[in-house]
Design brief:
- The structure is a single chain.
- The protein has 451 residues and is mainly beta.
- The protein folds into 4 domains: 125 residues, Immunoglobulins (Immunoglobulin-like, Sandwich); 62 residues, no CATH class; 124 residues, Immunoglobulin-like, CATH 2.60.40.1230; 110 residues, Immunoglobulin-like.
- The chain is 4% helix and 47% strand.
- The protein contains 3 helices and 33 strands.
- The strands form 8 sheets. Strands 1, 5, 7, 8, 9, 11 and 12 form a 7-stranded mixed beta sheet that branches.
Length: 451
């Protein structure tokens, strides 16, 4: 960790701070050592496929003993320079010695981790330091967080050559430069009151990037979240859950087609294995299906919210270091609130050419005043060709007025004149009292079959 001293130089002070980051150790790998089994040089992978392999050779291979010919001693248990590359144990192939090493540098700190530091204040002078008031705080571009303050209970004394140790923790919630500020106010050997500040700087990086896409298909909203690992170690995702807002429900879409509802937790979901996202750019995609809660007809809201919710992400590194992130609120497609809304309720699953069928529609008044009466028609549109689906019978349908926040359903008698995939388009509604036309109903695709 880089340290910068403010005020007087360390030589003018009896005390000095030393800071070490507390984190999990790592495995010690034997770089540059390739171990092998000498038996692999004498026989191929298809050795055991042959029926003439002797039982002696089989036993020696399975026991991992060096092969010895007739008249030769075992001699394989004595380690010497010439057999330093031999596999003495199956675990040797991992190139791990079994030792754990402490971090040799401060290392990288990522957003969502817990910053834990071991701080020692040493007295390197020949005098005793008395009434030591110690403070430690984290400074960011936005705020200052106090981690330790001994003002109410100062350290009585730190003898010559002695030290006072303590541990501080801080949940990292901001990106960018951070400064650990350690200060000490004490009486030196001459009885003078001295102030020692020391600054330790580090930078917090982003471990993950979360990219989201929102799509709406026939009243159902789909949210895709792509997580990319920016760290130098593998991340094991314990939890990637979407917390919907009050007016939404969510289900997780699995690759095998299984839909897991967040409201039901089974033992398989609670004890599910973590999802691995590899170091240096590994990605994984999550897909969620969101549905808006049905509202009571008497309590319809004029303005809808397009805030879907937020993601809760927890993970662990190779040796179990935890991390946690929470995204900002994810916004869905803009909600355009209409005073008069026309929607399709039901379309027959089977439609025969030149045979009448009924389309059930719903007209809703989402304003705070009554509206209507209304007139339903089908416009020709810009095309000069006749429509493939037209109204069967009376071309204009008159509907009664609607009170505020009320709705009514009605049927439209239609007939198809062409085979194949066709569109019901141009259904328009007009307020005859105000002579106001509203946006036409979005096109509805149907399949017209022959008898």
């Amino acid at each position: 960790m880089s340290a910068q001293q403010a005020g007087a130089s360390p030589s003018n002070h009896s005390l000095a701070f030393r800071v070490m980051r507390l984190c999990r150790p790592s495995f010690q790998a034997e770089d540059g050592v390739l171990r092998l089994d000498l038996f692999d040089l004498l026989a191929g992978e298809d050795l055991f496929d042959g029926p003439l392999v002797s039982s002696t050779v089989m036993d020696q291979v399975l026991r991992r003993q060096p092969f010895s010919g007739p008249g030769e001693g075992g001699g394989g248990d004595d380690f010497s320079f010439r057999d330093r590359f031999q596999l003495r144990n199956p675990n040797d192939a991992m190139a791990l010695s079994g030792f754990l090493i402490l971090p040799q540098s401060f290392g990288a700190i990522y957003l969502g981790e817990t910053f834990c530091s071991y701080i020692s204040i040493n007295n390197s002078s020949s005098f005793e330091a008395r009434d030591v008031v110690i403070k430690a705080e984290i400074q960011t571009e936005r705020q200052r967080i106090l981690l330790l303050d001994t003002s109410k209970a100062p350290v009585e004394s730190i003898r010559s050559g002695g030290r006072y140790d303590f541990i501080v923790e801080h949940d990292v919630k901001e990106l960018g430069p951070h400064t650990l500020v350690c200060t000490a106010l004490y009486n030196d050997g001459d009885g003078d009151r001295k102030y020692l500040p020391q600054f330790f700087k580090f930078v917090v990086a982003n471990p993950l990037s979360v990219r989201t896409k929102v799509r709406a298909v026939k009243g159902i909203t789909f949210l895709e979240a792509c997580l990319e690992n920016h760290t130098k170690c593998n991340l094991y995702m314990d939890q990637v859950e979407f917390e919907p807002s009050e007016n939404w429900t969510v289900s997780v879409l699995k690759p095998d087609g299984y839909i897991a509802n967040n409201s039901t937790q089974t033992s398989s979901m609670i004890f599910r294995p973590p999802r691995l996202i590899k170091a240096g750019g590994g990605i994984f995609n999550y897909l969620y299906q969101l549905k808006q809660l049905a509202e009571d007809s008497g309590q319809m809201k004029v303005g809808g919210s397009n805030v879907l919710g937020k993601l809760q992400i927890t993970w662990r590194t190779n040796l179990g270091e935890p991390g946690r992130l929470q995204t900002q609120q994810i916004v869905g497609m803009p909600i355009v609130q209409k005073d008069i809304d026309l929607q399709v309720v039901e379309v027959p699953s089977s439609i025969i050419i030149e045979r009448p069928f009924l389309v059930r529609l719903k007209l809703t008044n989402q304003s705070e005043r009554s509206a209507g009466p209304f007139e339903v028609t089908i416009s020709q549109g810009s095309s000069s060709l006749p429509k493939a689906v037209v109204v069967n019978g009376i071309q204009k349908l008159v509907l009664q007025p609607l009170e505020a926040f009320n709705s009514s359903e009605f049927n439209l008698n239609m007939i198809a004149t062409r085979l194949g995939v066709q569109k019901i388009s141009g259904i328009t509604i007009c307020d005859t009292r105000e002579e106001k036309y509203y946006d036409p109903l979005p096109d509805v695709e149907i399949f017209v079959d022959s008898e």
